[in-house]
Amino acid sequence: MDKIRAKKAKIAVVGDLMIDHYIWGECERISPEAPVQVLEVSKESNVLGGAGNVINNLTALDAEVSVYTVLGEDANAALAERLLREAGANCDAVIRQEKRVTTRKSRVIASNQQIIRFDDESREDISLGSQYALLTDLQKNIFSCDAVLLSDYGKGVLTPTLTRDIISLAKAHDKPVLVDPKGTDYGKYEGATLLTPNKKEASLATGIELSDQDTLREAGFKLKNELSLTYGIITLSEEGIAIFNDGMHIIPTVAREVYDVTGAGDTVLASLGIAMASGLDITEACEFANKAAAIVVAKVGSATATLNEIEEYEHSLNKGQAESKIKDFTQIKRIAKRLRAQGRKIIFTNGCFDILHRGHASYLQQAKALGDFLIVGLNSDESITRLKGESRPINDLEDRAFLLAALESVDYVVPFTEDTPYELIKRVMPDVLVKGADYEGKEVVGSDIAKEVKLISFVEGKSTSSIIGKISGNSC
């Protein structure tokens, strides 16, 4: 996640752009002219579809996107370009072709039920002139992009010749090229980094019925080897993603609820692309794509997932994984900002937590009960030595952080090297700052930043010093 945020990848998307047009209304009477329902229209909406949904997913993930497509000389083309600009995409390489019809799919929705769809489009291959113009534009910009995504909806933009030329261009400049394929003949995608067919598409393309692990393995390696792909990929819907590299490895799904799978394939392509462009390996990229898809299928309609949503989802999945809860200053500042935007109540406390004991556990449980998220600032080894002497700490920072993070009451642990956590508190900006009851009448560091300060009593007789004293007095 941090690699993706730091990279802010530049992605080129080439493919069939379309507009998804929705007409919404209610049907409460039958036409006197014919035995058909009459729709009373309440609203209309237009959103980017096809490759446009890949673009929406990429911009939601903070990628810089350049669009390479061919539209007609019509009103729908102007609408598509406006929607692209509103999405934050660069559409300087969008080509207009005379007499071509920009694809628009119009869906009539009555009482939340689709009753008919009608399409305006051209499906023949784009002209040789348009192919040359697209490839020329991509050649000019290939140096500045980090990955190329091909979104093929079979509407004529990704012709066999153009597709092969784009893959050759990307490979020559060591850029990953990822493809969402269409049809049953995948020959034009030969040499790509990977394709993202689902089980049905892979079965049709290979002629292998995918009924078990053996046939899945056979189809995956057939695609990889016959098309000279760097990695074989088959998406498995609720089962996850299968990777075919040295062997077959299935990355299981992490979806909890599935409401609508519309556009999930576009999410997988976009998230795989941005992950690989940011330097993640294929396994990490598939894990990231699984999480993005899990968020999208829990929403209704063609949806997107943001980095913040994925980060929050990761945290919910990793509640029991201590390492994932240990953050640095930059990470916790971003997390705290997201939590505040969501209206979550942030609690902050700090300490050495040298030998974790019952008193600590009770204190942290009480602190967590004051809000939604508990962030614990943890003194570094050096700062503990300065504060408590050369004999401390007993346990090093890595061990102390792990044990703290393993507690259910603790959401995040952030080490700090200063004598006080003031700089850390400035980044967290907590709602509640918690300290022990021994601070009664004393100034609490960070009280000028937090909205309120709460003092919590310690468990009688439970302290690190008493434990150390007990051990020293009973050594054998």
Could you characterize the architecture of this molecule?
It is a single chain. With 476 residues, this protein is of the alpha/beta class. The chain folds into two domains: 2-317, 3-Layer(aba) Sandwich (UDP-N-acetylmuramoyl-L-alanine:D-glutamate ligase), CATH 3.40.1190; 323-473, HUPs (Rossmann fold, 3-Layer(aba) Sandwich). The chain contains 16 helices and 18 strands. Helix 12 links the parallel strand 14 (346-351) and strand 15. Helix 4 runs parallel beside helix 5 (160-172).
Shape: elongated
Strand line-up in the sheet with most strands? 5-4-1-8-9-10
Question: DSSP strand (E) fraction?
Answer: 15-25%
N- to C-terminal distance:
49 Å
Percent range of helical residues = 25-40%
CATH class of the largest domain: Alpha Beta
Number of domains: 2
Mean pLDDT value: 91
**Strands, count:** 18
Largest sheet: 6 strands, parallel
The CATH architecture of the largest domain would be 3-Layer(aba) Sandwich
Low-confidence stretches: none
CATH homology superfamily name of the largest domain = Ribokinase
The third-level CATH topology of the largest domain is UDP-N-acetylmuramoyl-L-alanine:D-glutamate ligase
Classification by helices and strands: alpha/beta
Helix tally equals 16
The gyration radius over C-alpha positions equals: 28 Å
Organism: Sulfurovum lithotrophicum
Pfam families: CTP_transf_like, PfkB
Keywords: ATP-binding, Carbohydrate metabolism, Kinase, Multifunctional enzyme, Nucleotide-binding, Nucleotidyltransferase, Transferase
Subunit structure: Homodimer.
